[in-house]
Design goal:
Two copies of one chain form a homodimer. By secondary structure, chain A is α/β, with parallel strands linked by helices. The first copy, chain A, contains 14 helices and 15 strands. In chain A, the strands form three sheets. A seven-stranded mixed beta sheet of chain A has the order 1-7-6-5-4-2-3, with helices on both faces. Chain A has a four-stranded antiparallel beta sheet with strand order 8-9-11-10. In chain A, strand 4, helix 8 and strand 5 form a beta-alpha-beta unit. At the A-B interface, helix 1, helix 2, helix 3, helix 4 and helix 5 of A face helix 1, helix 2, helix 3, helix 4 and helix 5 of B.
């Protein structure tokens, strides 16, 4: 492909993306394809001879689009947002096009210096303590990671390393233990697996928040058993209900115990760009590392996960090895040693694009608007007696159909099967709830009403006709007496098998 | 930014990239900026109000470009290639524009199914054993990772997990040990740090290749000391000299000892697309995991690292945790559990673009062409009596100025300071050598001649006038008797301080 063809192909693809977003409301958010749909659409091996880009772009439309879940549809309300903005997309295009990586400063001064500055821009915009910034006098600093999972793992590794270094005892690594709440993201438990440190999942209070007393008691118990606490992962904005751990209480305990505190604010961290929410990170001065994902709620396309260390020497101690091609950098900080990979893409460029083209005001407007839309949805739920709101925070509302879990299960099934909106289930306080999140930046009040009408329609057509029939050892729920969904497992984890059958409920108690 | 502005901004950026490549020979490959150059070019905080995209794109040219190292300049001969191709750039644009991530199949059927198929396309193109493929009947399979560093770490984790599971003994994890060669990439040693497993750096033979006998002896010694070998990381294409470990010998030892074998073929793996090089991976059937980076030598823009497992159940055992939003996938394989992050970008799309638009023949032509260019450069070095070739393999030639290391050091300094071509130093068999790699896909014979003339010019102007003056305890090397570069450290690791001074050599022995 020569440069002229690239110009044509690139511009045709820009147009393709533009028209994709122009028409995004016309496509169902959930794909209707069956598992294995792609198998017969593609040859089994790489074609011997190259094909024309026209054919490839046609196939994106013909083969890929039907199997796509539309994460930026205004009707996508699952998980948390994954960022997408026009400045972010063009930033990704340019950084990929220029294709300049970096290792140390010498291998790409612009990439390293822009990343350092962007991390300071972000840190100041969130109101993080100055000691986390690259420009501070001390050893603090920030860097872009691939994902929050990786940041949590690195935070835990640093805590592990610092603890081992501080102990004279042999065999201390087999006695290490770390803590988080049972409401934390599964990636925190995974970080424990990766770092070979048992991760205790502590109970929360009634609001889903980990409290200082609970942590203190767990640490005390472990220490009495001869174990060595090395890290606490606190969450600001849990995946399930967007709850905030009590950072001030937890931080005080970590400070007193000399335990590393990593803060996972993957989704909700972006909200601190709005000063009225900063009270929720009270105690952040106790954090040793802090992470949030601009690629979630701050309009920077994935991947872009921002991580700060209060003392980057801990990261170096945990991660630095002598590189094969030794050329010590003349530039400080030498951020290549604060991450897993050897080199880094020029992701700072897309942060720069987004922050300049939106400005602080644009970012704040985006966040406040999504929170307002969530409150609007919440009001719709609250005024309907058939539902109850179980939790609500930031861009998320958790609600359920009153009564048995199975009604909510049937609602989720029905909505999912129709594919007009995308919702996710969650178990909260031992009840099944629906998570409804404002994800797409295209979502407007009209889309919230669209979603609400869809939910009510499925409720009235599929949930309400259900009747619970109790027999000796099982209760059977019938939908108009005709269709039955088998729910073999009381935790309802086999829902996705269910939606491929006719609607039919049998509940084994 | 509305959709019309996005169309303009996107297309202007496509044109910017096109004209960047049209003019790439006019720009020096190494930036001339001083450390900290960006500091005063950018405000200290995010601008309050958004700016126009025109201004931002202007600033890319004004602020970023001068500080960029041009990794795709035909005069970039450092490290190994980082891939960049027009189909790859447009693939990245589209995957970023559509912005669809995936977790399990349900969250994005197209993304999961295309990734599975692309990994099979790649595996078949390289001639990997069938049992590694997703489409095979057994438990093997492949998935895209972020980086080879991550793949090595995951391979080691799997070996660790499998070994622990197979041992009845308590406390086995503190006795684990892993092996690689001293020529392996520093990321292998880092993987040992990440996984808390000591990584032995074993000596190689005269060709930089790790042999079975050496490994066998090391394992025997460790086992006699009560340690438990869990993993070997073999390299196909070392960073220093692109040497190939003897996989057949190593694999036989691993097989007999029941030790996990991970193969790191980050750069050179791509060469197996050309059948005439497959003898270099003889023994690959012994591998438990195998990794190469399409984002190095196979034209797929970073990031895109391909990793296969012979038995993916090992990856699941090492990495799988119960996710917060439980919905077991109806689709097999459930590749979300074979990686660190929770979700994945739609990177398969750019592999698809590159492989279709190049075809097998296009990829082979690219690789063979770069190898031929390296041999052409090698011939230029070989016919010049002032130089010696120390190693040569694939797209890499290692050479040095005959005599004391300091001559090669002055050569590297001089070339680096002029910034016309980018070379890197390496220590091989205790001698300083220059690594010269064919990196850019734009590099042609004329660029090789350009590089050679540059090397000879610096040799004649700066290296040859040097004389070694021996006094009692030091030897002094003078460049025309006028300029002196201080070399304080016999390993010459402070070269980058040197190049900012006048050329002047003092060698303390």
């Amino acid at each position: 492909m020569d440069i002229e063809e690239f110009r044509e192909f690139g511009k045709a693809s820009v147009d393709y993306i533009a028209s994709y977003f122009e028409n995004i409301r016309k496509i169902d958010v959930i794909s209707k394809v069956e598992p294995g749909y792609l198998k017969n659409e593609l040859p089994e091996t790489v074609p011997l001879r190259g094909e024309s880009w026209h054919k490839v772009l046609e196939d994106v439309d013909k083969v890929i689009l039907p199997g796509l879940t539309h994460w930026h549809s205004p009707h996508f309300h699952a998980f948390f947002p994954t960022a997408n903005s026009f400045p972010g997309v063009v930033g990704e295009l340019l950084l990929s096009g220029l294709g300049s990586l970096s290792k140390d400063w010498e291998t790409n001064p612009a990439c390293i210096e822009l990343e350092i500055r962007m991390m300071d821009w972000l840190g100041k915009m969130l109101g993080l303590p100055e000691e986390f910034l690259n420009e501070s006098d001390g050893p603090g600093g920030g860097v872009i990671q691939n994902a929050a999972s990786e940041a949590t793992f690195l935070g835990l590794l640093c805590g592990k390393q610092r603890t081992i270094a501080s102990q004279s005892e042999d065999q201390v690594s087999s006695k290490l233990v770390a803590y988080t709440s049972k409401e934390s993201n599964s990636s925190v438990e995974k970080a424990g697996l990766l770092a070979s440190v048992p991760m205790r999942l502590l109970p929360t209070d009634q609001n889903g928040s980990l409290r200082g007393r609970t942590l203190q008691a767990a640490i005390k118990k472990d220490k009495e058993a001869g174990l060595v606490p090395c890290c606490v992962v606190a969450t600001l904005g849990t995946t399930g209900t967007c709850a905030f751990d009590n950072l001030e209480e937890i931080g005080t305990v970590c400070h007193e115990e000399g335990v590393w505190l990593h803060v996972d604010a993957a989704y909700a961290g972006a909200v601190f760009a709005c000063p009225e929410y900063r009270h929720l990170m009270k105690g952040v001065q106790f954090a040793d590392s802090f992470n949030f994902n601009p690629h979630k709620w701050m309009l920077v396309n994935s991947d872009c996960s921002a991580m700060w260390f209060k003392d980057t020497r801990n990261a170096e101690a945990a991660l630095r090895v002598k590189t094969n091609l030794p050329n010590p950098s003349v530039f400080e900080p030498d951020i290549q040693h604060w991450q897993i990979p050897d080199s880094r893409r020029f992701r700072a460029l897309k942060i720069w694009f987004v922050l300049r083209i939106y400005g602080v005001e644009g970012v704040q407007k985006h966040i406040r608007r999504q929170i307002a839309l969530a409150r609007f949805f919440q009001q719709l739920v609250e005024v309907d007696d058939r539902f109850e709101v179980c939790a609500s925070s930031m861009g998320l509302v958790c609600f359920r159909v009153k009564g048995e879990d199975v009604f909510t299960r049937v609602l989720l099934d029905g909505v999912s099967k129709r594919g007009k909106i995308f919702l996710t289930p969650y178990f909260y306080r031992e009840q099944l709830v629906v998570r409804f999140v404002i994800c797409s930046r295209f979502t407007e009040r009209g889309d919230i009403l669209f979603a609400w009408r869809e939910i009510v329609r499925v409720l009235e057509e599929q949930v309400f006709p259900c009747k619970i029939v109790v027999s000796k050892k099982r209760r059977r729920i019938r939908n108009n007496g005709t269709n039955i969904l088998k729910v073999l497992d009381p935790s309802f984890t086999n829902i996705h098998q269910g939606i491929n059958e006719n609607v039919k409920v049998e509940l084994f108690l």
